[in-house]
Amino acid sequence: MQADAMTVTTWPSNSAEAALKAAFTAIVGAANVRDDVAARKLYSEDVFAVSDHVVTLIVAPQSTAQLAEVVKAAHQAGVALAPRGGGMSYTSGYIPSTDSSVSIDMAAMNRILNISPEDMTVTVEAGCTWLALNTALAEHGLRTPFWGPMSGIYSTIGGGISQLNAMFGAGHHGTSSESVIALTVILADGQVLRTGARGPDGNTPFYRHYGPDLAGLFCGDCGTLGIKAEITMRLIRTPAHEDYASFSFKNGADLLKAMAEMARAGVASEMCAFDPGLTKVRMKRMSLMSDVKTLGAVIGKQKTLGKGLMAAAKIALGGRNFIEPTDYPLHVIAEGRSATGVAEDIAAARSIAKQFDGSEIENSIAKVIRAMPFPPPNSMLGPEGESWAPVHGIVSLSNAPAFHAAIDALFAEMAGEFDAHGIYTGYLFSSLSTNALIVEPVFYWPNGYRPVHAAMMETGHLAGLPKLDANPAATDVVTRARKRITEITASFGGGHFQIGRSYPYRQSRDAASIALLDQVKAMIDPRGQLNPGGLGFKQ
Question: Which structural domain, as residue segments, surrounds residue 394?
């Protein structure tokens, strides 16, 4: 799927499609139905891929009732639906697979419907962002156990449940779906399905596992089984104490062994590590203005002004040269109800790091990660305007070093092609609860930015980057490398979230699982209208 492959079709005013537009307009209002070419093109690409097709309409429902009516009308018209949250997918998660596809823009369904400190639950509409949710919960001293990816300024909770994601809180609580209590889902024909035990009024869900886990069926489904309308998650009181530690390792194997042991010990709410390649990118990217914003956030995060100024001073004076350019830095965040407990976790992390030849370094980046959890997504491009795209594998703790080594071997094999096309790479490493590590290679290559980047990045930042030409040859090399990494992941029996259309989920399932999935799909979406092609279902 290349940028120049996109074609735009226009509907005749007297066509059946025009009648569908009129039906949508009657449901959501004219202002919430769009068919301008620029918007249609934007909604037909994600961070990595541009579809061969262009959506014909964009519809933005304002409520669960409107969403159900929109889906029902689309079902009757026989058109495909592509649900879109924040637009941060890099796996073709929401792009159209036919020229008659309708994009369901969930951004207007962004309300927080209920916060219940009594029942420790929160219910949101699927278009609510992680940033908005955390801002609202902070007033109550509460948060969800998993509380968002780094892209949470735009990423929606519905998208996070459909695609799954990790980062904040994942070291203790796993991925986003593991904080879910109940879902309200719109099926392909417009029926409303509600999961979980829901209280005497049927609208106050509080318990997920009432019989078979129907909520789990729709978690990670990429919108192929139903469109999330409302999500209820459990709450915890925001931990009163947190602390940070950072370590440097001489090689990736020792880093991953240390991370695995820290995961087993359960000492970190988050772990975030980089390879030398990604460290160089991070150091090159930062500007003086972003430093000023960063220092302000760090000051505000600390308990007192004095502590904040001291933390900011350490960061400002230390610069970014505290990490050796060939080392692998690991940043650990611990949190808990008591300062003593947090201190014990940090002490355990120090002991584990030392066991694997890690040396402690200034914890500036760990502090910044917590002080600015949802920064503007300016890292969607490289420091010189290069395109950026990740790929990842989730593997067991014991397999992570060998998995990383296998990807390194692939990079060595492709080094000549990478050099010829100006492609360079890095790694991000993180953890999921006590049982898995995420190894996420990232690619940068000289290829110009597209509307999706312009729509999300800060205007001033984007203006300071060069606009590179399209580079299909380099993009093809990156595409092949990403595919090879998914094959390596499969050889380790690994998994993925954000499956979209990029990861070979279906090929990894046994015959009985495939048959069951196909039967479920056939029953609730017999025409295959919900995000066709996603999750390996027929396109």
Answer: 241-487
